[in-house]
Input
Amino acid sequence: MSEELNQNEITTETPAEVAPVVENETAPESQAESIPQETPEEESYATPTQPQVIVQRERGFSHYVGFALLSVLCICFYFMPGIALTFAISLIPGISLGAVAAWTFSAIFSVIAWAIFKMKIKGFKKSFYFYIGLCVLITILLVVIEVLTEETNVFARIFSLLCGAS
Output
């Protein structure tokens, strides 16, 4: 250690006459000082990857119930144009549909509505946005009908129609 202090004194006093520094492998301080510092440009190219620890919590029963509910709501939302048309047809006196028939007609009507949008509007993404807009519009229309007419019970009757209740 005294040799290092002597060498530091020599380098500070006479920078032109610096002798080559001989590092001792047993000194940890000298090894820490000899590590070259990386510049910011080098850091972006050579970054050592650290092991990542991913902590995953167990999902409870409510997570799966919520996922199932969201899936059912998304499917119902996608079929909303067909469901609304099937509901309108079921309001005609003398026509009664079972649950299977109601879902089948709803699916067929919704696919036909989406196909019309797909054929008329160029581009999958744009036609998808217009179809989602149609679904939102029909949902808003059904909510307005539900709120304005208290006796109709639109959503209760749609739910009973799709479940097969008469």
User: Anything to note?
Assistant: The mean pLDDT is 75. The chain has two domains: 2-34, 61-163. The helical segments are 2-13, 28-33, 40-45, 61-78, 80-90, 99-120, 124-148, 154-163.
